[in-house]
Structure formats: C-alpha cells, structure tokens
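Continuing the batch. This is chain 6 of the set; chains 1 through 5 are on the previous pages. Same settings as before, nothing changed between runs. Recording input and output for traceability.
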Amino acid sequence: MPRTFAYLRVSTIGQTTDNQLREITAAGFQVEPRRVVAETVSGSVAATQRRGFARLLDRLEAGDVLVVTKLDRLGRNAMDVGATVATLAGMGVRVHCLALGGVDLTSSTGKLTMNVINAVAEFERDLLVERTQAGLSRARAQGRKLGRPASLTAAQREQIAQRLQTGAAVSALAREFATSRQTIMRARDAEPGSSHHAGDVAGGMAADRVE
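Output for chain 6:
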C-alpha cells in the first residue's frame, strides 16, 4: 500500500502550517502525523538545500505519494520545481499539487502542465531581459551614467592625490574618507600628475612609437 507524505512550508517563524495540512486533509489525502514534514524556510531557497525537504527525500520510496498545497513548496522557481518533480518521478514517487487541482505532476497530464508553466516562466524571463536591455539603451541615449555612483567626488580625489604626495598613508586616507584602500589607490592613479599615471602615459607613447 503506497504511503502518503505531506510537505508543508512557511517562510517565517510567526506563520503556521496548520492551514496547509487542513487543505490536504480536506482534499481527501490521509497523512499519518509521522509522515508530515513541516519546516520554516524562505521560498528563495532551492528545495534540495532545505533541511526538512532533504530529509524527506531520504525517506521517500518508489510508490509513495507526496502532497503539497502549492508549487512553491517544491522549489524557488519554475526551473527548480521542474528539477524537483523530475527527481521525484525518477524515484517512482507521485507528486500531487492542490493548487493545480490535485493533479499528479509525474503523470502525462502533470508533465504537460509543468511544460506550460516552464514555457510561461521562460517567456517572462526573456521579456524581463528584453525590457531591461531596452531601458539601459534609453538611459545611455539620454546620456545617463549607468552603474554604481562614484564613492568619491572629484574634489575628494584631488585632495587625496595631494595628501598622498605629502606622505599621507593609503590606509589612513581610506579610514578618513570611509572607503577602501583600492578606491584610494584608484584615485591616486587617476590623477594626471601622479607617477603611476605618467608611467602609463609614457608606456603608451613608447608602444605607439614601436608600432
């Protein structure tokens, strides 16, 4: 006789899984208390990285039934859910999702449903990428500067270069301007009068003459 398991998940400690278990029972699934696995973990965590779900996988055997109320119980996104369902199907475990009418996701109908969900998710990802690229193109066309804002102003960079020339330490300036040593050194190298910058310019001129 197949065993029926229920996997329940909430995101925060203040939430309860009681409603999920009631939904599963109301749908006609009889689950013994020792086969109810509940855990509190963010939905952004992949299914295989959830401790409770990982232990559940170790307990499941061919012929068992796993019931969840929603698809996000099986993964953080459509791709993760698909991988989880494929793993369970390979183990011979049937997976029922109440939000999809209780359909067995490992059946032919369930696989068709998952294919549609994956196709929609892929379409949404492509649309997001397309909109992001279009937005970046518009911003560039309007002359907007993209990326993270500079941590130092032009006046601060000039001041740092002058302080370094008078012997100030890089680490001391980093603490004073609340930034990293790398930022201080980049400010130093960017100044036209710095020895590092002059060396780069001279090297470039020499390379031009060789070519």
